[in-house]
Specification:
- It is built from 7 helices and 6 strands.
- By secondary structure, it is an alpha+beta fold.
- It has a two-stranded antiparallel ribbon with strand order 1-2. It has a two-stranded antiparallel ribbon with strand order 3-4. A two-stranded antiparallel sheet has the order 5-6.
- Helix 1 packs antiparallel against helix 7 (158-178).
- The longest helix has 33 residues, at 12-44.
- The radius of gyration is 25 Å and the shape is elongated.
- Residues 55-59 have low confidence and may be disordered.
């Protein structure tokens, strides 16, 4: 009688390391089209029509954030690693300590803020009410949402589809590598 023994061993620790590495790659690959979508939304002004108003340019004695690029240039990706499976796309644009405002009558106000700098991206996306002692007091500024529109279109993005395929391939490879 002939007996054939087939034995396969599986290294679970190696499998988990490989899966974590594959997941980190996926998260970093997905963060790229999200950041690009934010940049595009801000750059094209898709999320609002406030930047086209002459009063906005007059008020700030020049070009608003859209034209200067401060808001869009501050979109950053904090990459995921195997130890921290979290990729973060965040907007880091802060208000400056000094300000310069031109009132409609032509008078220019310059000064220094007493408060801490605030993050533009958060307030642009969330909406806010102006302070009672601001140039335009107690005015509700609507949300200028550039985040949700990007996430809604993510499924159709070719980079996202490619990232999912790459993850599936990496996952399959990690399963083969874990077996001995």
């Amino acid at each position: 009688m002939i007996q054939v023994k087939y034995k396969k061993n599986f290294d679970v620790g190696r499998l988990l390391r490989n899966v974590r590495a594959s997941a980190a790659v996926l998260l970093n690959d997905v963060a790229v089209p999200v950041k690009e979508g934010w940049d595009e939304s801000i750059g094209q002004g898709k999320f609002n029509n406030f930047y086209n108003k002459k009063s906005t340019q007059d008020l700030h004695d020049g070009e608003p954030l859209l034209v200067t690029g401060k808001l869009a240039k501050s979109n950053k990706i904090l990459k995921a690693s195997t130890k921290k499976l979290k990729a973060v796309v965040k907007n880091t644009a802060k208000s400056s300590k000094n300000y310069k405002i031109k009132k409609p009558n032509g008078k220019i106000f310059k000064g220094t803020r007493k408060s801490q700098p605030v993050f533009y991206g958060y307030y642009q996306n969330k909406g806010f009410t102006t302070a009672s002692n601001s140039l335009i007091p107690n005015k509700r500024v609507p949300a200028r949402n550039f985040v949700d529109k990007t996430l809604d279109n993510l499924e159709k993005n070719p980079k996202y589809i490619k990232a999912k395929q790459k993850f599936a391939k990496n996952l399959e490879k990690s399963m083969k590598m874990a077996s001995k």
